[in-house]
Amino acid sequence: MTMALTPDVIFTDLDGTLLDHNNYSFAAALPALALIEEKSIIWVLNTSKTCAELNPLSKKLGNRYPFIVENGAAVVVPAGCDLLANVEMEWVDGARHKQFAPKRGDIVALLHGWREEKGYQFLGFSDFDAQNLQEITGLDVADAELALQRHYSEPICWQDSDEQWQRFSNDLREVGLQALKGGRFYHIMGPANKGVAMSWLVSCLFPTGPAPRVIALGDSGNDVAMLALADVGVVVRSEHHEPPEIPDPNGDIIVTEKCGPAGWNETLLELLK
Fold first, then answer.
1. Would the N or C end of the chain have less CB density within 10 A of its end CB?
2. What is the pLDDT of residue 2?
């Protein structure tokens, strides 16, 4: 009797992981990307970025699969992808979305109300234009425009005291929201995360047959839920912050030796050989 081979599926963060933190290049990851393509492995972008950002970026990366946006707020099946055809989803701006979080407009209205009533000091994406965001992130203006087109979350720069942050965090919890720490911003969103969206997508992509080996790669606090639920969680080392702790992981945890896409590349080449 022939045993069915266990497939691999890869979920990856972008900024600071597959993309260099400073210049957004993925050149150092090209050997592993070529191996993934050679082995026909499904690989999923799981990021804080928006659908508007991922449409062109996924094409640049040669990725033709569904992706996860805004820290797990939604799984998106882009136009032209025929996967998950039998799964009930909502159409949003020409793509199919499985939503795990409330809409951004409601979140922004609440945050702006708190800022006026309670005096919290912060700036969010709703306060920025593309030039402001370019100055903060180093994105070019066109990419900054795409980053501002959000559906489910509001990234903010906190400018207040630690004491006020505790009050703000309590207010968020009371209304069922959370603040996820990303590379540069706190992402204010509903009770979703990259791990929940990843698990849902795995169940849809592999409804029968052997369960896949889930490999997840990320570098920041907003990747912890994804890394903890993976069979192999790869913490990609950063030059800008310490590796996040992964409490109670489901599988093995690897911390890369190299930073960013170089560490991403080296570790995946070893795992997939």
1. N
2. 43
Sheet containing 90-92: order of strands:
67-69, 74-77, 95-99, 90-92
DSSP state of 242: P
Query: If you ran DSSP here, which 8-state letter would residue 15 be given?
Result: B
Percentage, residues of the chain above pLDDT 90: 89
- Cβ neighbours for 175, distance < 8 A, ≥ 6 positions apart: 110
Residues 48-68 pLDDT 10s:
899 999 999 999 999 999 999
pLDDT in tens, 177-216: 999 887 689 999 999 999 999 999 999 999 998 999 999 9
CA distances from 126 to 26, 50, 78, 192, 222 (A): 29, 14, 25, 21, 21
| Length of the chain counted residue by residue | 273
Query: Between the CA atoms of 13, 17, 21 and 26, what dihedral angle is there, to the nearest 10 degrees?
Result: -100
Q: Are the CB atoms for 92 and 149 separated by under 8 Å?
A: no
Domains observed in the chain: 8-100+192-272 (3.40.50.1000), 104-189 (3.30.980.20)
- Average pLDDT score over the chain: 94
13 is an active site residue: yes
**Catalytic pick among 13, 143, 219, 223:** 13
Name the nearest CA neighbour of 213 among 225, 223, 205, 224. Answer: 205
Q: Take residue 37 and report the two structure tokens written for it.
A: 């393509």
- Assess contact for 158 and 193: CB atoms under 8 A: no
How many C-beta atoms surround the C-beta of residue 191 within 10 A? Answer: 13
| DSSP code at position 248 | S
189 neighbors 73 (Cβ within 8 angstroms): yes
